[in-house]
Each structure stands twice: as C-alpha cells, then as structure tokens.
Amino acid sequence: MEGLDFVQLRTLAAVVSEGSFEAAARLLHVTPSAVSQRVKALEETVGQVLVRRARPCVATEAGAPLLRLAGQLVLLEREALTDARGPLTGGGARTRLAVVVNADSLATWFPAALARLPEGLELSLDLRQEDQDHTAELLRDGVVTAAVTAQREPVQGCRVRRLGAMRYRALAAPALAAAHFADGLTAAALAGAPTVVFDRRDRLQHRFIRTLTGRTLDPPVHYVPSVPAFSETIRHGLGWGLVPEQIAEDDLASGACVDIAPGRQVDVPLYWQHWRLESAALNGLTTAVRAVAAEALR
Q1: SS3 207
Q2: Where is the HTH lysR-type domain (predicted)?
C-alpha cells in the first residue's frame, strides 16, 4: 500500500482548521487548485472521501484519524525543529495548540492556567468553546489537541486526567424567587418559572429540574450564549439558572441574587483529555491546567 504524504496531510489539516480550500491556500501560500489536488490525491490513496465540502469544511469519519495524525506530526515537527536549531538561532516558530474548553471554565479558572505555563514555552493557542458534554467530539474528530470535558472515558489515542468538579448554584433575582418559588421548588413552580439556558446543547438546568422533581418538565427558556450576559439576565429577573460558584458568590454577597435551592448545588466533574504524545508543549500545558484546576475546582 502506498504511504501517506506529509504535505497532503498538512493540507488536509489546513482545510479543516481554516474552514475552506481558499483559506487553507492562503495559510499555506499556494493556490486553491494546489490545495484541492493535494486533498484529492490523499483521498485517492486512502480510497475514502476525507473532507465534507461544506461551509465550513469538516472532516468525514474517514478523515478524522488522518486529521489527528496530521496534527500530531505538525506538533512534533515544530518541536523537533526548535530543539535542533537551539537558542542561538532563535529556535523555531511558536508551537500552535488547539484546545476546546467549556464556556464556564473559560470564563473562570482556565485563563489562570495559561498564565501558569512554564517560562520559555512559546505557544500560540487556538481556544475553542463548546459545552462540556460535547467538547470531546472535537478531540475525537482531530480538530483539537486537548479538551476540558465532562467525558470520563478516554477518546481513542488520548489520555484522560480528572481535574475536579465545577460547582453550580441555582440563582434567581429576589423578586423572581418571591413570585415563583414562595412555596418552594415544586414541579408546578419549576414548570412555570422561566429559566436561563446557555444554548440548545446546554441541558444542565433541565437535568437539575428532573433531579428535583423526578419529572421531565418544559419550562419557558431564555437562550443566552454568553457567560456575562447569562448572569446579567438572571440578575435582571428574567429567569433563574445554574451559575458557577466562582461567579455566584459575588451576586449572593451583594444581594443581587438568592440561592433558590440551598444545599442542592450541582457538581459537574471535569476531565482533561489530550493526545497521547510526548510533547514538551502539551506536557507543559497539561501541568499548568492540572495545577490551576486543583486550586479552583472541587
């Protein structure tokens, strides 16, 4: 069988990361026709369609393992060049790592991990945001190198390490709590009270309702896909929602919000999954993420 061509693999990775053949051509300083020819040649070698020609372009199921391989080869190549050139020649280009993180971690503890990276580690980070129940999908598809995820089972070819649990408190503005929950968190109250949900993939509030009532309810929902706006929507009394404890503490202390379910907080376990590679960049990022998570999470 014919071997895989590294240039073609790198081109495949560029098409998926940039989202189109034209953008990949600009990144690689070649023509779109050259990009198309390289991807087509790789598909002929494998005997499978590797890229779904859409907006944006995405890897097919057959393309995902080759996308992971391409990313791993690029990472190891850059580190090898940096080591070979040494400090006297200025090393090599910055190592680029694509990482997917859930929105609440990105808004609270994760930036501190980036500030904790080892001195001298030259990284360019491509941070993606996704719900913690779905971050592992990008890792599985080869789009990212590492993920903060709620998935405990390791993705094929990856290592998984427990980070801790992010705690959430059920908050509402005092007026909304008085209007809807004067008699407690009954099924009728939870079915009628508006709730704030991050996006359509966010099922945290609905799972909390099911835990409290044993029933699947369909309350009015406000979708607010921004962590600051999510909390602000709750403060303004438009609905109740589950807020990370790091953010909730200030609202509770100021009286802007009340805890509508004292003692019934929600702990969401988080894990760090990353490619199974011996990489200085990946090892350094992993060490920093685990250290900060140990301080910030439960």
Answers
A1: helix
A2: 4-60
Highest mean pLDDT out of 1-10, 75-84, 111-120: 111-120
> How far does Cα 5 stand from its chain's mean position?
30
Residue 224 domain-assigned (yes or no): yes
Supply the CATH number for residue 49's domain: 1.10.10.10
Q: Check whether 79 has a pLDDT greater than 80.
A: no
Separation of CA 288 from chain center = 17
Residue 165 has which token pair? 């649990």
pLDDT reading at 2 higher than 90? no
Residue 142 lies in a domain: no
pLDDT level of residue 87 (50, 70, 90 thresholds)? low
Asked, for residue 147, whether it belongs to a domain, the answer is no
Domain of 236, CATH number, reads 3.40.190.10
What is the residue-wise DSSP string for 45-77? HHTS--EE-SSS-EE-TTHHHHHHHHHHHHHHH
The answer, yes or no, to whether residue 1 has pLDDT greater than 50, is no
pTM of the predicted structure, to 2 decimals:
0.80
**Angle between helical axes of 6-18 and 21-28 (0-180°, round to 10):** 120
User: Is residue 109 a part of any domain in this protein?
Assistant: no
| Domain encompassing residue 40 | 1-90
Return d(Cα 158, Cα 141) in angstroms, integer.
12
- What pLDDT is recorded for position 89? 52
Total domains in the fold of the chain: 2
Instruction: Please compute, for residue 182, the number of CA atoms within 13 A of its CA located in the half-sphere on the CB side.
Output: 4
